[in-house]
């Protein structure tokens, strides 16, 4: 059957611990029912951005569905940025931070309903030294945890707990200067989070005022915490205490590490050590289907 209504499904075959066969079956079934012409792309880890970009240009889909983690979602978002094409998320990564913020539970049934539903919002992104962050990026403690977890060959809760303890023993606070149009903050920090959203994938709410569509992002600056409190936060057992963290809503900021380089991660992907970050909001970056 010929159809003008096209859907592109992008699947990361290696992400998370999720059986992609079920996803294929459900998407094929749903697109048949709704009369969509379906195209499928499985990522290879090599030149995926260029290939997806070309497919989007040629196919002109109404929706692009992504079954993968935050890395694959960011990649696809880049290919449909500033367009009316709707991004449908089928959570299938290891952490699924973005999906959690959109209220997606992880069930395929719910994801399908949402991805083909008629509710969507246009979300902002944050540009950090030229890279795009859709969710939460940070320097300091959590970025070191992301690095340690990526470097370790264990997975699952036990592996996470072990890396968390190692991270707590290795981490050192750093001196930071943050310059925004609201003034200059100079402080010792445990972590500085550049937050477009509200919650980490663990469910910890670190930015309760976060709104992905408001034209602002938040800088969440946490100072020294004690060992137990920090462990609870990393493990996802408690939210940040407002007494020891400062939150500023901005459109632009310069972040400088004054005494040493700090570990840096974007949306769950470790990016190395940095001393200087230039950040600014990119309004209306991508349209996402929501519950
Ligand atoms: N076929 C493939 N083989 C190997 N690596 C791949 C393949 N397809 C994509 N990748 C890699 O997968 C990474 C993106 O993974 P993604 O973020 O989707 O899942 P994840 O890491 O399991 O989940 P999360 O981001 O939620 O932790 C990229 O580094 C990309 O290069």
TrEMBL record:
Transmembrane segments: none annotated. Keywords: ATP-binding, Kinase, Nucleotide-binding, Transferase. Gene3D superfamilies: 2.60.200.40, Probable inorganic polyphosphate/atp-NAD kinase, domain 1. It holds the Pfam family YegS_C. GO terms for molecular function: ATP binding; kinase activity. Residues 2-132 form the DAGKc domain. PROSITE patterns: DAGK. Coiled coil: none annotated. This is Diacylglycerol kinase family protein. The lineage of its organism: Bacteria, Pseudomonadati, Bacteroidota, Cytophagia, Cytophagales.
């Amino acid at each position: 059957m010929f159809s003008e209504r096209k859907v592109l499904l992008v699947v990361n075959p290696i992400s998370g611990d999720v059986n992609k066969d079920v996803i294929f079956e459900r998407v094929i079934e749903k697109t048949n029912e709704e009369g969509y012409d379906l195209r499928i792309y499985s990522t290879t880890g090599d030149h995926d951005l260029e290939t997806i970009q070309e497919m989007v240009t040629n196919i002109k889909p109404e929706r692009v569905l992504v079954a993968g983690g935050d890395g694959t979602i960011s990649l696809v978002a880049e290919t449909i940025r500033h367009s009316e094409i709707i991004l449908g998320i089928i959570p299938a990564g290891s952490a699924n931070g973005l999906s959690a913020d959109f209220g997606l539970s992880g069930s395929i049934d719910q994801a399908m309903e949402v991805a083909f539903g008629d509710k969507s919002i246009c979300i902002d992104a944050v540009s950090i030294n030229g890279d795009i962050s859709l969710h939460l990026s940070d320097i300091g403690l959590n970025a070191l945890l992301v690095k340690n977890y990526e470097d370790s060959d264990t997975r699952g809760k036990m592996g996470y707990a072990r890396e968390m303890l190692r991270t707590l023993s290795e981490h050192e606070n750093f001196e930071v200067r943050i310059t925004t149009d609201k003034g200059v903050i100079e402080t010792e920090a445990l972590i500085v989070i550049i937050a477009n959203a509200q919650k980490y994938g663990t469910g910890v709410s670190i930015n309760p005022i976060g709104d992905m569509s408001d034209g602002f992002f938040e800088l969440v600056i946490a100072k020294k915490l004690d060992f137990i409190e920090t462990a609870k936060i990393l493990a996802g057992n408690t939210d940040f205490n407002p007494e020891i963290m400062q939150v500023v809503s901005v459109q632009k900021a310069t972040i400088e590490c004054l005494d040493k380089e700090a570990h840096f991660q974007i949306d769950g992907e470790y990016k190395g050590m940095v001393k200087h970050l230039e950040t600014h909001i990119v309004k209306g970056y991508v349209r996402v289907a929501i519950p």
